[in-house]
User: Fold this.
Amino acid sequence: MPGPGAYWIAEEERKEILDAVESKYWFRYGDPENPNFKQKVYKLEQEFAQAFQCQHALATTSGTASLLVSLLALGIKPGDEVIVPAYTFVASYTSIIFAGGVPVLTEINDSLTIDPDEIRKKITPKTKAIMPVHMLGNPCQMDAILDISQQYGIPILEDACQAFGASWKGQNVGTLGDMGAFSLNFFKTITSGDGGLVATNQKDLYEKAFGFHDQGHLPNRTGVEVGNRLILGLNFRMNELTGAGALAQFRKLPALLTRLRELKGKLKSKLAELPGIRFRTINDEKGECGTLLTVIFDSAEMAKEIGAELGTGPIARSGWHVYSNMEHVGAHLASVGQPHGFGAYPKTDDLLLRSMNISVGVVDGGLGAGFGININSTDDEIEVIAQKFAAAYRKVQS
Ligand SMILES: *Cc1c(COP(=O)(O)O)cnc(C)c1O
Assistant:
């Protein structure tokens, strides 16, 4: 039950990966003159930066690693507060915690992304970054968020892990703020099994993120270099085999998004005929990924009963995407004096209890999207899913 990219793994991936396998040169750095060094990771970074029109791209081992090295590059230190939505994957919180920061959770609105008006209420002198998360492929309300960033001089780190290829007013998400983090795990839009990318237009942030991801080294090294290093780093380097798979998948992204949007359009227009049905607000209809279709019901009971009919449930039940379901995060929030546990963010609680995810491309029970279609579904299959949903909807309504 992976993401759409995984459904499309085929000859192109096989070719790229075999090319790397057979070269026997699996490390991302090497002598460009060496014919065995295929430079897959380097090509991935170049092609990404070119297509997404950003100055710098850095490949990493995961979306989580991308978030962590970005937070460190932004200078997050122990005690610094980072504003983050109350609805997101656990890694948004853990990356902040491992950077030493304090996650300051913030209510979402009916787009299921962070509510810009609520961000303002959370700003304190300790706020050192804002992490909008483009949840379920939907771009956040970036104009308002960038205004806040400018007004207060607080940098933006976009968590674009669930929105690879989404755009806000024509510009790719993840390249609008100071930094952006992407994931290539198996459940995301495109995949290399695991992997990640960081995007930024600022050279100093790129160099810092690079150093944190590679033992303090500077970018574009060709071997093991010695000399002074400005920062202590860790190792989150992508290897050539992963880079090869990611490269083939990245080249499929435009076709994948076109297909997802087409499928979602078909499914949505069928469900839209049901009386009283309401979907979450999509902040940029042209730019969203189309990986999921989210319905918001009038009541939590309706969401629960319709979910039960369809073998799924409200988003509130999706484990590590809902703050109140993360006991370990809750314990940490308690220890730093932050609100935690169900009821701490009532608008978010209410929305998630009333919402249900239907898969279009991301078929993931962990996201509450165990019911729906996938990227290879035919028109007939879409019709069957639409009819199942309609039958459950009518039954519960009557
Ligand atoms: C998947 C995800 C991550 C983490 O990505 P990994 O590649 O699994 O480490 C971070 N944030 C969000 C919102 C995600 O959905």
Summary: The pocket of pyridoxal-5'-phosphate is lined by residues 62-64, 88-89, 91-92, 133, 159, 161-162, 183, 185, 194, 196 (CB under 6 Å).
